[in-house]
Amino acid sequence: MRRLDVTRERKNCFVPTSEIIAVEETDLNKKQHNSGKWQKMAKPHAFTVYYVKKARNHRWWCSDVTFWCVDEQLCNQWIQALKELLELQKARPKQLLVYINPYGGKRQGKRIYEQKVAPLFSLASISTDVFITERANHAKDNLFEVNINKYDGVVCVGGDGMFSEVMHGLIGRMQKDSGIDQNNPKAPLVQCNIRIGIIPAGSTDCICYSTVGISDPVTSALHIIVGDSQPLDVSSVHHNNTFLKYTVSLLGYGFYGDILKDSEKKRWMGPMRYDYSGFKTFLSHHCYEGTISFQPAKHTLGSPRDKDSCRTGCHICRQSEQQLAEQRKKCGLKHEEDEEEWKVIKGKFLAINVVNMSCACPRSPKGLSPAAHLADGSADLILVRKCSRFDFLRYLVRHTNQDDQFDFSFVDVYRVKSFQFTSKLLEDNESDVTDIGKKHFGQFCRDHPACCCNIANSTWNCDGETLDSSAIEVRVHCQLMKLFARGIEENCKEASRNQSRVEQLL
Ligand SMILES: CCCCCCCCCCCCC/C=C/[C@@H](O)[C@H](COP(=O)(O)O)NC(C)=O
Ligand SMILES: Nc1ncnc2c1ncn2[C@@H]1O[C@H](COP(=O)(O)OP(=O)(O)O)[C@@H](O)[C@H]1O
Ligand SMILES: [Ca+2]
């Protein structure tokens, strides 16, 4: 058996079976066997191996190599043997449910799926049921109705908002089927074993970027095909024993909440709306007063100021998960967290960000918390206190460069497992319901007219969805769900060399 690789002039190449996408008999009418040597072959037979090719910056693409020979039986034996090897890859999905948001990002979701993703799924013999949404919450509602057991995974084509919708559908469905009341903030939630794949077609695509290392539809499709699995922490957000939302990336009050609220009115601008609203929100420089309380995450070895980040096979995530499982075993049904200390901080803040992952995205390649972990059962609480516009700009600029964004006197960061916030406005209203004057005294701080402190509340930016609540309770649920991803690889080339290999003979 000989390999023909005239274009690349490489002598040999190694592909781990786990990275073979498909093996097919080659249609010789389509394929030009234009090397002089092979043209002499009487009646050639050939098969093509499609495999994952790893490029720079975590980008994957589908490459192929064709093998030719004169012996038809030998050719078929190779095809058979390679197909049997692929059958052993049990983590690969065979049947997927796909939701496409045709209005996300630059409104290219449907085209991206049809042109870049569907051909790869079909090459990999994955069957799909495709659902194009017609309204917000369509996918979420549908997930409560479908026969979910039929599928090995759910794929969402869209941005963070669309992912959030699908995640709410899946987690909600799981709890409903298990009789868990989502309104109980202390209820131990049931893990969601059906993986979600994200085909990025939104505006920020932070969840995809932070879990794969790049926002690229082909790369994401290939991670789905090879059956990758990345556990993910999910935080639940409640108020007064009422379930509000789940979040996996950013839960932001103040700056990021205001940007999102303003940008929703400018959807027609596409992803540019965030730059426009970002600039406007930066100039308005509103700060918000309130009380924050949180329980530090003592079970994890990591800290938000670590130099190392969460990478594929992260040992901190593994250790943290084991630690939490042991604690749970020891405490039985008792809630260990009830006994742990709460830290309380009062103040005026420009931004309160709770991030479950780094929140890296093309705009901020390291993210809002570069050392946050995907699956360690903790979130990073970042408090940006009231400061000058110039200082806030310095902080924002550090989202985009290599400098330490926590190295400012007005920025504090904590690794937490639960968190609560109540706005000053709500506290005042609750403690002094008769003082209605405050509520009607315009938008800004009455005591200090020059102060930027906003008497109105901000809103929460919950994975790109607005959430209006001036008091919330947040709890991190370790590894509640799984994605078709593997986290960010340390060094793509190294990682591929270390895996088991199938040698392609010369
Ligand atoms: C002067 C320098 C300014 C630098 C600003 C740096 C901005 C960094 C933005 C990081 C945002 C990461 C958090 C991700 C949030 C997404 O969930 C959300 C929604 O994303 P989607 O539109 O659904 O894809 N997008 C935004 C901007 O709030
Ligand atoms: N067919 C639809 N029409 C309108 N909105 C939709 C539709 N399908 C989904 N959505 C909603 O659109 C919002 C934003 O979608 P997303 O894909 O995240 O795009 P973007 O990244 O541009 O915000 C989500 O909240 C989702 O619920
Ligand atoms: Ca985490």
From TrEMBL:
InterPro entries attached to this UniProt entry: ATP-NAD_kinase_N (IPR017438), CERK_C (IPR045363), CERK_PH (IPR057465), Diacylglycerol_kinase_cat_dom (IPR001206), Lipid_Phosphate_FormReg (IPR050187), NAD/diacylglycerol_kinase_sf (IPR016064)
PROSITE patterns: DAGK (PS50146)
Occurrences of domain DAGKc (ranges): 91-241
A Pfam short name: CERK_C
A GO term from the CC aspect: membrane
PANTHER family (alphabetical): CERAMIDE KINASE, SPHINGOSINE KINASE
Name of protein: Ceramide kinase
